[in-house]
Amino acid sequence: MTDHHSDIDSVSGKSTTGHEWDGIKELNTPLPRWWVITFYLTIVWAIAYWVVYPAWPLIQSNTTGMFGYSSRADVAVELANLEKIRGGKMTALGAASLADIEKDPALLALARAKGKTVFGDNCAPCHGSGAAGAKGYPNLNDDDWLWGGTLDQIMQTIQFGARSGHAKTHEGQMLAFGKDGVLKPEEIVTVANYVRSLSGLSTRNGFDAAKGEKIFAENCVACHGDGGKGNPEMGAPNLTDKIWLYGSDEATLIETISQGRAGVMPAWEGRLDPATIKAMAVYVHSLGGGK
Amino acid sequence: MNKTVNPNELKPVDDNGPLYAARKKVYPQSVSGTFRRIKWGLMAICLGVYYFLPFVRWNRGLGAPSQAVLIDLPNSRFYFFFIELWPQEVYYFTGLLIVAAVALFLMNSVGGRIWCGYLCPQTVWTDLFYAVERLIEGDRRERMKKAKSSDPLKLERVSEIVLKHSIWLMIAWWTGGAWVLYFNDAPTLVKELVTFQGPMIAYIWIGILTASTYLLAGYMREQVCTYMCPWPRIQAALTDEWALNVTYRYDRGEKRTSVKKAAELRALGQQVGDCVDCYQCVAVCPTGIDIRNGPQMECIQCGLCIDACDNVMAKIGRPKRLIGYDNDINIHRRQEGKAPIYRIVRARTIVYSAIIAAVGGFMVYTLATRSLLDVNVLHDRNPVAVKLSDGSIRNAYTVRLLNKSGYDRAIAIDVEGPVNPTMHVVGADSVTPDRPIIVIPRDSTSELRLLVTAPAENNPEKSIPVRVHVMDIGLGVAASATDNFVAP
Fold it and tell me: What are the CA-CA distances from residue A3 to residues A11, A24, B444 (Å)?
């Protein structure tokens, strides 16, 4: 390589790098000094950063750095601060009784706002973002409640769940009368039509109402009560109203009676703090169906 | 028409020369006269209003701000004496801006750049800063001499410079200080500011406005008008031949001669112009132009050259107003020996006045008749309708009630649409036999959840309109909003 400082391009008067391709020489245009200095400073900065902050992944963990910084610790601090800011209000909410919350406009507004957010995070996957429910997941806006629609009953259901495995959970389920051989297929068809007749729905030709009533009295009344009015103690739905959790057509009813039903509502005690569960109960109650 | 240019006269383009012409610093001379007095008066009014308005009090009752003009950003309220505006009424400012713009057009078509010459903050503060400069450093000639002087700085000169900039900075600081007072209770904020307990944002804004006032009025001055402001360009496009502008009446002024020569020629009975080329009009001009070159974009039409020329005309015994508010039409008419005519009332001034009156009238009317009670209704989207166990249909709405008055209101809610509906408001504990009643505190809004249920036998087949009526049960003031009742 030639000494490029001695090689001056005749047109521009600038020195060249000495590199030549097909007779074309490259002008020597060094990077600006400030740029080079900045570049080296960034390298120094990066090395310092590795030392003081978490940087390099190891097989099981990572280097922690001299400052012992972690973004998770930051989150914990922020959450603690948030709790402190909200402390007064949420404490008041936790201390008030459910009935008092509904009477105090400020507490009611807080509970509804809090409940709505928590509902979106925890309940919406099954019950829907507007609590309108779906097949097998109750609509919480209406006035039909499997386990009771008073504030206390709603709170109890949220706390302990239904068939959740919690010690205080709601028990009771729809038995599989067909699968378990309790009822014969034609008996199931008959009782299914009888159940439809309870809420004024049409029945198939040749349906024997007396036989249906007899089967119902022998097998269903224990939970669903006389006349099929339901029993919130057992989570047995009212069969005389217009609201059907799984559907009211004959095929669905036959499926329900044959296979049984046992939807699960998880217990939220322990996962959500008591004040939050209270807020949620108030929110669900205020959706419109609360008793 | 393009003139043919002799190629030999073309100058070579200097590629290495500056892109922009350097500013020629202006040293306006002091002047006295009618327009100077008008300008002093308007300056006193403008600055007086700006600096002292925040301290004017206005009683709005206990708990409400007592400042006459207040922009309350944290609470989203604007107070102007007896008017209180909420954020959703921001369209009044649109109306105000329309009126302001058209008023500007009207001024322009009547008397040229009245705004620029007399009322624009840039003009007012620059004028004030020039007055300070003149007071400390002397008039035009002295200032020019001091600026040109290459003598080493003496104590006297240094103290002059320091004093001038200190006073400028104090004015600028007071300007920034007055600005922040419009956003907070003035007496309280002043107390906080002087004890260094004011909010940081107030100090930042005072700093910004101190800097901008100092730079714009102390240094940039006429350059703001010439290079930064769009109005000179806009007004040039809006003006017409009847608009009165500060005009050199060249029909009277030309040909220019000296005083002595003019007297000699007049003695011989010859026609001589009144302009004696004394350059007083140029000396007093705050933008450093020569009005005798005709209407120019740089001219802010402050009228000071009229005063300067009038003083000279009085001295040499010629009629005043060689420079005056006039237009080219009249110059030509006088040249033809006809009497000048002034047409203030013409199509555009009538149209502009009509727009101002219409928009202003509409604003006053809407402001005077606006309701201090309002309601918004928003239908629940999920679920849109709920079927209840007895087969009836329920719709839920979010209702927002606005009480803009200075007292609490008890509001009754009523629904019109579905047949025999039942109503329930979540959180309403006072329910008269058939309608819920809510209390809304003064100057606030309240959001409620309204549930409307149509009995099974009256289920609408499809969506039907529903009207929510709200009424102040004490005063009978009512408002309503519409939405739909939806069947699943």
Answer: 19, 17, 82
Q: Which domain holds residue A101?
A: 73-168+265-286
Q: Is residue A68 part of a domain?
A: no
Q: Are residues A237 and A97 in the same domain?
A: no
Is this model's pTM higher than 0.95 or not? no
A77 plus A161 within the same structural domain:
yes
Contacting residues of A for B386, CB less than 8 Å apart: 132, 139, 141-142, 288-289
Confidence (pLDDT) at B430: 57
B225 CB contacts (<8 Å, ≥6 apart)? Answer: B116, B122, B123, B232, B287, B298, B300
Q: Of the candidates A103, A143, A289, which has its C-beta nearest B429's C-beta?
A: A103
On whether any CB of chain A is under 8 Å from the CB of B380, the answer is yes
In whole angstroms, how large is the CA radius of gyration of chain B? Answer: 33
Using one digit for the tens of pLDDT, what is the confidence trace for B369-426? 988 899 999 999 888 999 898 889 999 999 999 998 888 898 989 898 888 888 888 8
User: Which chain A residues contact residue B381 at CB under 8 A?
Assistant: 130
Domain residue ranges of chain B, discontinuous segments joined by +: 19-370, 373-485
Q: Which of A5-9, A80-84, B50-54, B250-254 has the highest mean pLDDT?
A: B50-54
Tell me: do A163 and A237 sit in the same domain: no
Residues A25 and A106 in one domain: no
Q: What per-residue confidence (pLDDT) applies to A17?
A: 86
Same domain, A147 and A37: no
What per-residue confidence (pLDDT) applies to A1?
Answer: 44
- Inform me whether the C-beta atom of residue B396 falls under 8 Å from chain A C-beta atoms: yes
Residues of chain A with pLDDT under 50: 1-4
Whether A127 and A283 have beta carbons less than 8 Å apart is answered as no
| Cβ pair B443, B407 in contact under 8 A | no
Residues of chain A found within 8 Å of residue B389, distances taken between Cβ atoms: 142-144, 238, 241-243
Whether residue A144 sits in one domain with residue A205: no
Give residue-wise pLDDT tens across range B112-149.
999 999 999 999 999 999 999 999 999 999 999 998 88
H-helix segments, B182-279 = 186-194, 200-215, 222-223, 231-238, 250-253, 259-267
Q: Residue A192: which CATH number?
A: 1.10.760.10
Domain co-membership, A23 together with A78: no
Residues 19-38 of B with CB under 8 A from A: none
Predicted confidence at residue B339, as pLDDT, reads: 94
Residue A278 · residue A94 · CB < 8 Å: yes
ipTM of predicted complex = 0.72
CATH of B373-485, one of 2.60.40.10, 3.40.1170.60, 3.30.750.24, 1.20.120.140: 2.60.40.10
Tokens representing residue A95 in the block? 């201390």
A108/B390 Cβ within 8 A: no
The tens digit of pLDDT for each residue in B5-31 reads 676 676 666 677 777 778 889 999 999
Question: Which residue is listed with tokens 């804004």?
Answer: B205
Residue A155 known to bind ligand:
no
Answer yes or no: is A239 within a domain.
yes
Question: Does A129 contact chain B (CB < 8 Å)?
Answer: yes
Same domain, A77 and A138: yes
Q: What is the pLDDT of residue B375?
A: 93
Instruction: Enumerate residues 235 to 254 of chain A having a beta carbon within 8 A of any beta carbon in chain B.
Output: 238, 241-243
Strand, coil or helix: what is B197? coil
Alpha-carbon distance of B378 to B376, in angstroms, equals 7
Residues B168-217 have pLDDT tens digits of 999 999 999 999 999 999 999 999 999 999 999 999 999 999 999 999 99
**Residue A126 annotated as binding site:** yes
Cβ of B389 and A143 within 8 Å? yes
Number of domains in chain A: 3
Q: Quote the CA–CA distance of A257 and A191 in Å, as a whole number.
A: 9
